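Structure (tokenized):
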């Protein structure tokens, strides 16, 4: 596990964008795993700038979604599908046909989860997976006590995560869904390169447990210690408890 401490979120974004540019130059049809949340936004902005500058061609790239709310219509502005279209696909000019994601509106959610897990494998697997981290150490929506071998499945959000995410729903926790679909920890660990970003003091405990704590389901991100190619990118504040 490599830990890189950067001066600020923008520097982290540029570093990850550089890794993606290199990947695309080596493998133009790479499958890029993307996360939502505010932390990865500088990555998408920096990548967009690099692509517009002609440093990489995204005409063959494919994009895979990490997690999704259950029950939000796909066109709801806060469904992760909408968020990723807004923040990744549209700025980069990537067509919908290049997008892989679970169906959060399916009538049979477990079947939708299994289908998505299978689709990821059949598409050759994720080449580079961008991850954020929850204040409780969750990755994707794998809350504490998730099995470290878990596959894509339905999960119930903790109260803490619903409180944390209420900011995307006008601060109204009653609007935050209770259930989600998330790639499992075992699924995430199959990506060839994992890049976890964390910024701000609020993530310092989670980063310390991820990097220096025991591998434990109490901190789902600690499972990244098991992966042969993990890069953790943090600012000084998020690294302050290392
Ligand atoms: C949500 C997402 C995670 C993300 C986390 C942190 O729970 N499911 O993938 O890592 O939020 O979000 P932020 O980066 O906004 O702190």
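Design, position by position:
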């Amino acid at each position: 596990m490599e830990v890189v401490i950067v001066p600020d979120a923008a520097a982290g974004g540029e570093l990850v964008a550089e890794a993606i540019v290199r990947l695309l130059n080596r493998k133009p049809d790479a499958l890029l795993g993307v996360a939502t949340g505010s932390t990865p936004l500088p990555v998408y902005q920096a990548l967009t700038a690099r692509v517009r500058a002609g440093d990489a061609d995204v005409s063959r790239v494919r994009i895979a979604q990490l997690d999704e709310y259950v029950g939000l219509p796909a066109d709801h502005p806060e469904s992760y599908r909408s968020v990723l279209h807004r923040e990744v696909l549209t700025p980069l000019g990537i067509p919908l046909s290049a997008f892989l994601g679970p169906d959060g509106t399916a009538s049979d959610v477990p079947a939708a989860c299994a289908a998505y897990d299978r689709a990821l494998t059949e598409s050759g697997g994720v080449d580079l997976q961008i991850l954020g981290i929850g204040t409780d150490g969750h990755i994707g929506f794998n809350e504490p006590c998730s099995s470290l071998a878990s596959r894509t499945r339905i999960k119930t959000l903790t109260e803490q995560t619903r409180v944390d995410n209420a900011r995307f729903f006008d601060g109204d926790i009653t609007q935050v869904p209770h259930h989600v679909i998330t790639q499992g920890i075992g699924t995430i660990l199959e990506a060839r390169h994992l890049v976890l970003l964390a910024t701000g003091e609020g993530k310092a405990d989670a980063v310390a447990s991820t990097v220096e704590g025991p591998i434990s389901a109490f901190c789902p991100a600690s499972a990244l210690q098991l992966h042969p190619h993990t890069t953790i990118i943090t600012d000084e504040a998020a690294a302050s408890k290392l």
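Reviewer-requested clarification: The longest helix spans residues 9-26. The two ends are 14 Å apart (CA to CA).
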